[in-house]
Amino acid sequence: MKKKILALAVCVMMIGSILSGCGSSAKTEDTTATTTATTTPTTTATTTEDKEDTSTDAAANTDKKLLGVSVPKASTGWTAAVQYYAEQYVMGKDIEITVVAAENTNEQANQIEELINMKCDAIVLLPINDELATAAQKIMDAGITLINYDRTLGTTEPDYYVAGDNKGVGVQGAKYLQLKLGDDYTVVVVGISGWGAISEERIQGYKETIAEITPNVKILGEYSAENASQEAGLALMTDILSANPEVDAVFSADDELGIGLTQAIKEANRTDIKAVIGGGGCKGYLNKMTSDDYKDIWLGSATYSPSMITDAMYVAEKVLTGSSCDKKIIIPCDLVDRENVEQWKSVNNFDEKAPY
Fold first, then answer.
1. How far is Cα 54 from Cα 221, in angstroms, rounded to an integer?
2. Do 129 and 105 contact (CB within 8 A), yes or no?
3. Mean pLDDT of 1-19
4. Domain boundaries, the chain
5. Mean of the per-residue pLDDT values for the chain?
6. Residue 328 in this model has a pLDDT that exceeds 80
7. Given this model, what pLDDT does residue 92 score?
8. What is the pLDDT of residue 340?
9. The listed CATH number (3.40.50.300, 3.40.50.2300, 1.10.246.10, 1.10.10.60) that belongs to domain 17-165+307-331
């Protein structure tokens, strides 16, 4: 019966398409919390190393619209995959697309200035943090359409905003643990201090939902890793296990962190923990779900795929070609575990070559 309930829940979440708000009925690939299939390349993504050549090419080809894409350089697998999917999306497009990646806020602000000077028609921005609000405002002041992806910009309101459902990650996590453990269990909650609002929203969604649907759940402790690395998860969970001799479940704000958390559980030979729910849809974590090493633990994920950058780029492409789109698009997450992970990968054209 539980399998049927989970399968039904996943199917319902997969039905919706976030791009119904766009004024075009034809999109060549479904990127709603999925990966993007590659196509035969006719244009090339550019990085910060070759952006000067791109400026020359863009100037020479004035018949095409120019889209700039600004993202952080890889500090985690997720951000590495954002750049990967952005560059994959460039393939076979009828507009010129320049992708640049920055290591810090100053570099990203400078790259934004360069994109403005290149006379981009639109810019997709994944800001490193809300310190980029001033640079983002300069984009709009220059008459360039701004599509903000994933992270907010403080009081600066972009023309369009595309993101996953961070609070939904927590909501789905609470529902998943109820499905697997019932209405009465103990749990530790693990967030990421460097993520700010992203981690806070996921934890808020979890805590608000358990208060509503499973009020008897006992949170033994709330912990925070400095970053989302596997190493940070391993070190932190080792300490958590020492402090908590009996735990039923773990709620993690991120799957990449969850790889380290689950490794610590396994290395400590802890059999009391029956379920770990994370967020993101990280390749390494998804692959653990069907491993015999974790057959006694339910590993679940509420997806928040880095491939959603292509949804933001799709919005930009539609706007540049005269179609209308919703000003704000929030992409729902899917709930994945060992019972449906292979089906989910197949349906969503999951790219095993991606960094996350």
1. 51
2. yes
3. 39
4. 17-165+307-331, 166-303
5. 85
6. yes
7. 75
8. 97
9. 3.40.50.2300
Same fold, 17-165+307-331 and 166-303: yes
User: What's the pLDDT at 295?
Assistant: 93
- Asked if 231 contacts 260 with a C-beta cutoff of 8 angstroms, the reply is yes
User: Which residue(s) pair with 279 in the sheet?
Assistant: 302
| Chain center to CA of 351 | 14
The pLDDT value recorded for residue 93 is 83
Chain centroid to Cα 279, Å, comes to 9
Q: Which residues pair with 335 in a beta bridge?
A: 302
What SS3 state is found at 302?
strand
CATH class held by domain 166-303 = alpha beta
Distance between CA 68 and CA 115 in Å, rounded? 6
Beta strands in the chain (DSSP E): 66-72, 96-102, 122-125, 145-149, 160-164, 186-192, 218-225, 249-252, 275-280, 298-303, 328-331, 335-336
The pair of three-digit structure tokens given for residue 173, joined into one six-digit string: 């996590």
Output the six-digit token pair for 301.
């994920």
Amino acid (one-letter) located at 171 = V
Q: List Cβ neighbours of 163 (8 Å cut-off, separation of 6 or more).
A: 149, 150, 151, 308, 329, 330, 331
What are 78-131's pLDDT values in tens digits?
A: 999 999 999 889 887 888 999 999 999 999 999 999 999 999 999 999 999 889
For residue 123, the 8-state DSSP code is E
C-alpha to C-alpha distance for 131 and 113, rounded to whole angstroms:
15
